C-alpha cells in the first residue's frame, strides 16, 4: 500500500477541484426557467429575428459581445454596463470600443420584451439573454442551433481595468492564444473552433495595417498573407485612410456562418496574424485542414466550445443578481 498521507492529500486535492466546479455546474441547466419564464427562448428569438431583419450587423455584434463578456469577468453581462460618474466600465476599455452597438441593442430589447411578460418580470438575467441571443444569431446566419445552459446571474461590477490583458489580440501567436484560452478552461481545439467566429463581421484597417505595410524591414508585407489578398487590402486600406474603415473578416462568405473560414486560412486569407497562425503553425494546422473538409465536425466542435465558454465565471448566490436594466448595475 502507498503512503496513507499521500493518498489522503490526493483525495483532498481532488475533492477541492470538484467543489470549485460545483456551484456553476449546479446552477446552469437547460430548463432553468421552465417554471418562472417558460417562453423565454421564444421571446428572445423573436427580438433577435426582428433585429436581424433590420441589420445583419446584429449577428457579429452579438457574437463578439458574448465572447468579450465571458473572457473578462465571466459570462455575467458586465460588458453591457454603461460608465457612470467616476467609474469607467468595461465597454469603454480600448479593446471594447469596436463592439458594435447592435449587439448591446439586441440584448436590451430582448430584456425589455422578456420583462414585459408579467410572469417573467425580473426573473431572467441579462447574461442569460445574451447567451440565448448569441445562439440565435449563429443559427440565423447559417450556423448550428444548440441547447443553451441557463441560470447565470448578472455581475455586480464593471471596470475598464478588469479588461487589461484578458482579450486576445490580432497579433497573437499560437502559444499566446492557447495560454489565454486555457486560462478560461478552454482547450486549443476550443480556441480554433471559436476563432471561426471571424467567418462573420468586420475589422478596422488599423488592426492589421502592419501586416500589409510594415511587417519587417526585409518584408513590408507579411509573407504568410496571400499576395493578391494583400494587394486588395492595401487598396481598401491605403496608408492615410481613416483607420476605422471596416473590412470583412471573411472575404469569401462574410454573411454566412460556415467553415469557409478554415478554407480561407489554407489560402493565406486570414485577416489577422492570430487567424493565419492557426494554419501556419504545424500544431494547429491539422485541425484547420480537417474542419475545412468537414462542416459537421467543425459545427460539433463549435457547439462544444460555445457551451464551455458559456460556463466561464458564472456568478451564483451573492456574487450576482438580476438587473432591471442591462446597462445599469443594481
UniProtKB/TrEMBL annotation:
SUPFAM superfamilies: Heme-dependent peroxidases. Keywords: Calcium, Disulfide bond, Heme, Hydrogen peroxide, Iron, Metal-binding, Oxidoreductase, Peroxidase, Pyrrolidone carboxylic acid, Secreted, Signal. Its EC number is 1.11.1.7. Heme b binds at residue 198. Substrate binds at residue 168. The record marks 64 as: Transition state stabilizer. It comes from the Eukaryota. It catalyses: 2 a phenolic donor + H2O2 = 2 a phenolic radical donor + 2 H2O. PROSITE patterns: PEROXIDASE_1 (PS00435), PEROXIDASE_2 (PS00436), PEROXIDASE_4 (PS50873). It is found in: Secreted. GO terms for cellular component: extracellular region. The keyword Cell division does not apply. GO terms for biological process: hydrogen peroxide catabolic process; response to oxidative stress. Binds 1 heme b (iron(II)-protoporphyrin IX) group per subunit. Binds 2 calcium ions per subunit. GO terms for molecular function: heme binding; lactoperoxidase activity; metal ion binding. Belongs to the peroxidase family. Classical plant (class III) peroxidase subfamily. This is Peroxidase. It comes from Spirodela intermedia (Intermediate duckweed).
Amino acid at each position: 500500500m502507498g503512503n496513507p498521507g499521500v493518498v489522503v492529500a490526493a483525495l483532498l486535492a481532488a475533492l477541492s477541484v470538484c467543489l470549485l466546479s460545483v456551484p456553476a455546474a449546479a446552477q446552469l441547466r437547460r430548463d432553468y426557467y421552465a417554471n418562472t419564464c417558460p417562453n423565454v427562448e421564444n421571446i428572445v428569438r423573436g427580438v433577435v429575428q426582428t433585429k436581424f431583419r433590420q441589420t445583419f450587423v446584429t449577428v457579429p455584434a452579438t457574437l463578439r459581445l458574448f465572447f468579450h463578456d465571458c473572457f473578462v469577468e465571466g459570462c455575467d453581462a458586465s460588458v453591457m454596463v454603461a460608465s457612470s460618474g467616476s467609474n469607467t466600465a468595461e465597454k469603454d476599455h480600448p479593446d471594447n470600443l469596436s463592439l458594435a452597438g447592435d449587439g448591446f441593442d439586441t440584448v436590451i430589447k430582448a430584456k425589455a420584451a422578456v420583462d414585459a411578460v408579467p410572469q417573467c418580470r425580473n426573473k431572467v438575467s441579462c447574461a442569460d439573454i445574451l447567451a440565448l441571443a448569441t445562439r440565435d444569431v449563429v443559427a440565423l446566419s447559417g450556423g448550428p442551433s444548440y441547447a443553451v445552459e441557463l441560470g447565470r446571474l448578472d455581475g455586480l461590477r464593471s471596470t475598464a481595468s478588469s479588461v487589461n490583458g484578458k482579450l486576445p489580440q490580432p497579433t497573437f501567436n499560437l502559444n499566446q492564444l492557447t495560454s489565454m484560452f486555457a486560462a478560461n478552461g478552454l482547450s486549443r481545439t476550443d480556441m480554433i473552433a471559436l476563432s471561426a467566429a471571424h467567418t462573420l463581421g468586420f475589422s478596422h484597417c488599423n488592426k492589421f495595417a502592419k501586416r500589409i505595410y510594415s511587417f519587417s524591414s526585409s518584408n513590408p508585407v507579411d509573407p504568410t498573407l496571400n499576395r493578391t489578398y494583400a494587394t486588395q487590402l492595401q487598396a481598401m486600406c491605403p496608408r492615410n485612410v481613416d483607420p476605422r474603415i471596416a473590412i470583412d473578416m471573411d472575404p469569401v462568405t462574410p454573411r454566412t456562418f460556415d467553415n469557409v473560414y478554415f478554407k480561407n486560412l489554407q489560402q493565406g486569407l486570414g485577416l489577422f496574424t492570430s487567424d493565419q497562425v492557426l494554419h501556419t503553425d504545424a500544431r494547429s494546422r491539422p485541425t484547420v485542414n480537417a474542419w475545412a473538409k468537414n462542416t459537421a465536425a467543425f459545427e460539433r466542435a463549435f457547439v462544444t466550445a460555445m457551451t464551455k465558454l458559456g460556463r466561464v465565471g458564472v456568478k451564483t448566490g451573492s456574487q450576482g443578481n438580476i438587473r432591471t436594466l442591462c446597462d445599469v448595475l443594481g
